[in-house]
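ligand=GLP
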Amino acid sequence: MEVLVCPDETHAHALVAKILTTRVAERPDIVLGLATGRTMIGVYDHLSRSDISFRDVTSFNLDEYVGLAADDPRSFAAYMKRHYIDPLELDPARVHVPDGIAPDLTAAASAYENSIARAGGIALQLVGIGRTGHIGFNEPISSLRSRTRDKVLTPATRAQNADDFGGDPAAVPKRALTMGVGTILDSSELILLATGEAKADVVAEAVEGPIAARVSASAIQLHNKAKVILDEAAASRLTRRDYYDFVFLNEPKWDGYRHLVATNLEGGDQKDTQS
Ligand code: GLP
């Protein structure tokens, strides 16, 4: 796992967008795993201003509220149309979101898993983190091997997402269809993006705490190609920050990316001492 700390959320969005556009430039028909939430809006904004076309990308979103149709403006399908499909002028048929109104959720969940497998698996998965430590909607004590299924949301998550529902937590659906932790871990590469002070404690638990179902995001420690991209506020409770910055400054693979992050780092010249 690598932890990359950016000076602010704008730089964090730009860094994630640059990794995504680089992967798409290398492989235009890549399969991506995509995420929603306030944190991701800035990333999609960067993608919409990029010269790299996402036309041939196939994507699978992490989750959807149960009971919301794709044309409900509060659904994650509608979020993807607003922030990704329309601005990037994409074919909606390539952008998969779990079907929150499927009559048989178990069948819809296994169909979703099958579609991911048929597409060849997810090459790069983007995730955010909820304040309960969830990735996707894998609330505390989700099995670390779980697959796509419907999941009951915690009151904390419903409160966190109430803004999209007129500010009323009771109006937030009680369930969601979400990729499992195991589904997420199957991706070839994983990026967790978190910004803001409100995420600092849970980010520290996920990155430096024990791997535990209590904090499903801690499962990223089991992934062999995971990057955690943070702003200063979200990184503020990490204890090994010096080491994370040192790696970023010295890994040659980050040479083309350092300008997006390095304004908050010292010793940037060290990069040239590595071969
Ligand atoms: C949501 C989603 C997650 C998202 C997280 C954080 O409810 N299910 O995929 O990463 O909670 O959301 P935000 O970025 O708005 O803080």
